[in-house]
Amino acid sequence: MEIDTVTNGNSDAVMTETAPTITPSPVVPSSRSSQLTESLKLEHQLLRVPFEHYKKTIRANHRSFEKEVSTVVSSVGDLADSDWSKDATVSRLTSLVSRLQGLKRKLEEGSNVENLQAQRCRARIDHLDSVDVENITEWNNTKLKRILVDYMLRMSYFETATKLSESSNILDLVDIDIFREAKKVIDALKNREVASALTWCADNKTRLKKSKSKFEFQLRLQEFIEMVRVDTAESYKQAISYARKHLAPWGATHMNELQHVLATLAFKSTTECSKYKVLFELRQWDVLVNQFKQEFCKLYGMTMEPLLNIYLQAGLSALKTPYGFEEGCTKEDPLSQENFRKLALPLPFSKQHHSKLVCYISKELMDTENPPQVLPNGYVYSTKALKEMAEKNGGRITCPRTGFACDYTELVKAYIS
Amino acid sequence: MELKSIKDAFDRVATKQKLSYNKTNEIVHMLSQEIDKALSIIKESPSDTVLDHRSIISDVKKAFVGIAPVTQLEAAEKELHVALTKYPKVLEKQLNPDISKAYRNNAEFDTHIVNQIIANFFYRQGMFDIGDCFVAETGESECSTRQSFVEMYQILEAMKRRDLEPALNWAVLNSDKLKQARSDLEMKLHSLHFLEIAQGKNSKEAINYARKHIATFADSCLPEIQKLMCSLLWNRKLDKSPYSEFLSPALWNNAVKELTRQYCNLLGESSESPLNITVAAGTQTLPVLLKYMNVMANKKLDWQTMEQLPVDAQLSEEFQFHSVFVCPVSKEQSSDENPPMMMSCGHVLCKQTINKMSKNGSKSSFKCPYCPTDVDISRCRQLHF
């Protein structure tokens, strides 16, 4: 059997080698390695979060050491200025010695924690450094697991998050402990308690102030509303003195909100006035939970949205074609799955500047190395697949979609630019 | 991106942290030394004169002023502080500080759907423990595909042990569907079984097996069958025969791959996890989108309502599931209304473009924009990719 791949079955096909008059700019496929570098740039959160944690520990430790040292110094000063007996002086000094010893211990412990956290920061940098073209598949699998753990932690699915991280050996690459800290506050807020959220605000006072956060104010407002809700003479008195102490300082910057909320004193929790009714709704606590999550993410340099959602959105858009929604779409396309279609529905379609043809038979790309061939009925398949078919069947070709049969020699090459 | 500059910046932080620790340690040590010294002097001094121990204490106080511990601590912290502020800046410069810039807030995902996708992913990967844990923790309804994947992994586990029976049972049961999908899985499995028999026992049994199970594939796989039967001539010396390829573990790997693909396809699933594919596609798309956002930062851009991405994500081949034809002249993607048409010279344009070039058919021929051919409109024909 002879297969002539070059001859164009068409007699008047004058395919000379003359350069085409219009040459569309060729697609420059970004090489694998530059693609890799680009994808590493998406990992800001991976490096930032443990660092913020590390920094927080360093700062807190330093502050407490400084405080201890200056207390010791001033105690000695006081001692020198006062009139104690010898025994009393000795016992004072001894207690200062043991205090310094305690400080030394704390210093040691603090440094151990700091070193562990530094190690975690390093492990993540090394993780980014470890990827290359050879181990990329495995690395990407780990990446997907990291992204899933991030999703679960944000949704408070701690059990699965821990299990998955342990079984995949990625504990150093995920932030379970940090989210546990958040969980305490979230759980308390869900139980309508603000105390732990306020403690958290106090712990992160400077950072929150810097980002002009009003989260603490919102917590205070909620506490105020809860006092009004109780609806007794005593509680109103309490509410007013609370407002004087905790709300008034925010007046300078947030007067409107302050006025708005304070007017609840005039409305009872049973009010029908819609503007005030909403303030008494228990849903407000969920708003606080969400607000907390946002503040928390900002503080640690995390994205507001779970990484999974960001990646899925981008991926779904890039994969979204009108063909994916058609009946009989190849099952290999994620968009053939009902759940993925639903997620992709509000997202934009992909855009392609250049033709990309996939052989129906072999699913391989048809390009200059494997050019498309046209059957007399207008159906197009790749040269490789048709050649293979012809070899098996004594030069005959059967169109898999229409059943049309012809000879291999009847095929015509199509030129796709 | 320079990972090295990130590393260097972090090393600076770690070094300064160590210095600061040493400094604090040193100061605490000095302070306790001074106090210890004073204590021993007081204790040893025989008389209980008030003045004496007071003067000692004021010596300690002076010494403390000399050490100036608080000032020293502050100085150490200042140096550390510089390194601590610099590192996040390096990160922001070298990496994309906020990938959510490419996120559309108006396309909020339904948590249930996302959870179902994740549960399905765990089962799909054979991580049944974690999948079950996830389903329980999220309170989602039981995943409908779980049982099917359990069976799939049983078949695959058996294949790992070189036990083909479960795989063959499944393939025979789904023989018609496999043929429809033009899969040669059944033949692949039978060949493997045949080779196992030929290797282990006598040729006669192998021949019987071939007659019974392999002969029926003569239509589609004649050359393979010929090779298989021929390999019997070398019987137990296959490794030194022209058929040594039959010993390659690649045959088994291919069979495992094909079985996974067919099993998933019959379930209505892709052979690769769709979650994996989508996130991988997202990884390639995000840098392109973010770059675009940066360039267009000052332009008013309605990213939230766009119906088509503003840029070509240029995904690599493995993500191309459909033929997309873009008319090289009009730059539009072909559709049912505007199908691709091949001209007599073999170049392909969209129907609308051809209509335009022929002035809606008023001209019976026009010149191909890519070669010197005069194109006869009546000979343009529609293509189906």
UniProtKB/TrEMBL annotation, chain A:
Record-annotated CTLH domain positions: 178-235
Chief location category: cytoplasm
Domain of life, per lineage: Eukaryota
Subcellular location: Cytoplasm
Annotated spans, Disordered: 1-31
InterPro entries, per database record: CRA_dom (IPR013144), CTLH/CRA (IPR024964), CTLH_C (IPR006595), Fyv10_fam (IPR045098), LisH (IPR006594), ZF_RING_GID (IPR044063), Znf-RING_euk (IPR027370)
Segments forming domain RING-Gid-type: 329-402
Name recorded for this polypeptide: LisH domain-containing protein
Biological source species: Capsella rubella
Record lineage: Eukaryota, Viridiplantae, Streptophyta, Embryophyta, Tracheophyta
From TrEMBL, chain B:
GO CC entries: cytoplasm; GID complex; nucleus
RING-Gid-type domain sequence ranges: 327-371
Biological process (GO), any one: proteasome-mediated ubiquitin-dependent protein catabolic process
Compartments it resides in: Cytoplasm
One MF term in the entry's GO annotations: ubiquitin protein ligase activity
Keywords: Cytoplasm, Metal-binding, Zinc, Zinc-finger
PANTHER family assigned to the protein according to its UniProt record, in alphabetical order: MACROPHAGE ERYTHROBLAST ATTACHER-RELATED, PROTEIN RMD5 HOMOLOG
UniProt name for this protein: RING-Gid-type domain-containing protein
Protein source organism: Capsella rubella
